[in-house]
Structure formats: C-alpha cells, structure tokens
Amino acid sequence: MTQPATFRRSLTAAALALIALISTPVHAQGAPPPKPALWLVQDADTTLYLFGTIHFMRPDLDWRTARVTEAMEASDALFLEVADPDDQAAVAPLIQQYGMSPDRPLSSLLNAEDLVRLDTAARTLGASASQMDPLRPWLAGVMLSSALPARGGFEAGSGVDVLLRADAARAAKPIHGLETPADQVRMLSGFSEEGQIAFLRNTLDTFGEAPVELGQLADAWTRGDVEGIDEITLAPMKARTPIVYETTIVARNRRWAEQVATLLDAPGTTFVAVGALHLAGDDSVQQILKEAGITVERIQ
Which pTM value belongs to this model? Predict the structure, then answer.
C-alpha cells in the first residue's frame, strides 16, 4: 500500500499516542489561570509527586504553576508512561507486526455503512478508507482518535509529558517509563477481533461529538476538576466499552500503583507524570495506593 506522507505521520502519531485517551485543555481569555491537580506521597525519606498529563496541547497554554515547577525542580528523576514517546524506531516494527492485517482487511469486517463513516473520518487524516483497509481495527480506531487534537490546533510537541521530559533532560535527570511502547501495542492488539471492531465502531459513533467532549474535558483539566474528568470521559467509557476501560485504564493503574509503591522503598524525590485519566475516578492510581494503606495528599 502506498501511503502519502500525511498518512505516515498520522500512523506514527497514533502509535505514540496509543491509548492515551486525549484531553485537550483550552484556557479561555479572562478565565482563572490553569491549576491542574497535583498529589504528594511521602514517607520518612521518600517524596513522590503524581501529576496528570495531557498528551496533546495548544502551544500557547501556560500550565506550569509555581507548585508544579517547584516539585519538578526538587525531583531527582522523572517517571512517564513511556520513557521516550518519540522513539519511532521502537514503534514502527511493532505497528508492522501487531497493527497490520492485509489478510483480514477492514472492508471484510465492517458493513457498508461503517465503511462510509470510516472513509469520512479517514479524510481528516488526509487518507481514505481504502488506505486504512490493511490496518487492524484497534489501530484504525487509535489513528482516528489521534486526528482530533489537530482539528483544534493542538500539538503533540506541546504535550505536557513531552515538555516535562525536555525539562528533565535539560537538568540531566534520569527519565524512566512505567511501561514500554511494546507493552502498549501488545495490550491493544491483544483485544479479540470482536472487541477491536466494537472499539472502532464506538470511535466512529462518537467522532463528531469528540470536539465538544474535548472542550469540556479541557475546562475540567484546567481547573483541576478530577470529578469532572471522571464524569466527562471515564464514566462514558466504562458504560460504552467496559473491556476497553478495564484493560486500558484499570489494569494499567494497578500495575503503575504497584511500581509507585515500590519507589517508596528507596530514598529520594521523584516526579511521576501519567495521563490525567489515570488519576481520576474510583479506579485511579491514588485510590489503589490508598487501598494499599499508602497516604496520598492532594497539594494543588
């Protein structure tokens, strides 16, 4: 399949974003300055900061509060979902292995109505349904999701995790990942074909609604409204696609909470930044830590 440059770039962006269900904050003129939520976990000789990130951001939003800046500067190391989200060399072969299925093209899995909807959505990527035909359903759904921020003027290069990583690199601080690109790709590709098709259809169902939802989510993140993030995004996901919620949110939160708890075994200060959806709701990383007897305090 011959792919135009815009389609190849979208494929890379989708692979890097993966299941980081995108929230895109907007700071309206005259509104209070952004104050995204920040949590503290401490024991006698260890300090951990937990911060929710946004993977795509408008470059003109100044989200760094004094408290976030102080926490980052005080930290000895940075933990992100993935240590290097721009590692295209690591992602490309995984996409080829787990994301392509020319022997079972999308046109053989979707009905005529779905294919028309897929073509309409694909054109926002500068592609078409025929060009996406060799993709497995999970990758097609992620690719379509990755197109939404660009429609609102948001950039991956201005994402919170990207900028935090740059800050840590300039300060020569170690940067670690809670998981790898391979973990993420294998997680999504591990869904049954039926589950992948359901995910893709849900993406098509909500494609037109996404800009409205993103605006609502933007306001919630900017205000530090964790309950709003849950209501706007997590609750609908849990109701529409519970297997996606369980696999991409809950299971990962449990693994990450376990890793965060392990960090308390060594002295020092660490800044842990993961997607904001993982720090909201009843199944959040903080809630899992609390259930394990670890005190988590919100400090912003």
Answer: 0.84
